[in-house]
Design brief:
Structural class: mainly alpha
Number of helices: 3
Strand content: under 5%
Order of helices and strands: HHH
Shape: elongated
Distance between the termini: 11 Å
Amino acid sequence: MQGFDPHKAHVEVAHPYLTMMGLYLGGFTGMFSETSLNIALPQLTEAFGVDVAVMQWMASAICWSSASFCPSPACS
């Protein structure tokens, strides 16, 4: 990247601990929802009448789609 100065990329935050708590809470919520989805796989396969492999692919698709919304330093 031409002309990138890492010192100019620094942002002052009024309450850094509140910001970090928000990020941690968001990360925990995402992991909790994906874990609860994996626990519910047997009930979901029965409810939708599909094979376990199909439901595992659906769970993977949900995890991939939620991961695509995570910010990445490469996207800036």
